[in-house]
Amino acid sequence: EADIYQTPRYLVIGTGKKITLECSQTMGHDKMYWYQQDPGMELHLIHYSYGVNSTEKGDLSSESTVSRIRTEHFPLTLESARPSHTSQYLCASSGGRGGVYEQYFGPGTRLTVT
Amino acid sequence: AQSVTQPDIHITVSEGASLELRCNYSYGATPYLFWYVQSPGQGLQLLLKYFSGDTLVQGIKGFEAEFKRSQSSFNLRKPSVHWSDAAEYFCAVGAMDSNYQLIWGAGTKLIIKP
Question: Do residues B18 and B114 touch, judged by C-beta distance below 8 A?
């Protein structure tokens, strides 16, 4: 079944640690996105990609980085986690039959930095 | 600049009552319009979308939305809500000049009274 996956679902980590949030999709979509969302708040786009070897920063400044070496994989990395990075991170993809704007979301990763 | 406004931060509705969630957008041409739902701690699920044609669109879970060009609105409706409809609802707009990104509303939290 075509889907979009995120791991881990929950992560509690100490300040200064390097972390990578994984996102994979099996829908064959060329466009992928990372959003940051505080509880009960709106979504903020932090990174997006139009295809392999394409990455762009979004509207919200973020200290994270992304890579897109394979179509299906779009990991997000924080080199040195800080308490201000505590948030929910949502991965999405688009570009299938629904069109380039119809985004499909993963279940999210809730990150807590202590 | 394109924008999406969801005027109601919270809405409380009794179970079995009808529901209307408001969404207004600002864009010169006809945009692509979406409603998503987010249950607590989860990713977003697409409820319905409008690209063109019939201005009344049907979605999943018994929801519908009507595109009104003259009012720049795309309000979400349901004739009878269930307790399981309690969630956060997001309206989003995609436009030809938005680099395939969605412009998001701030969300409306739906609370269901028993």
Answer: no
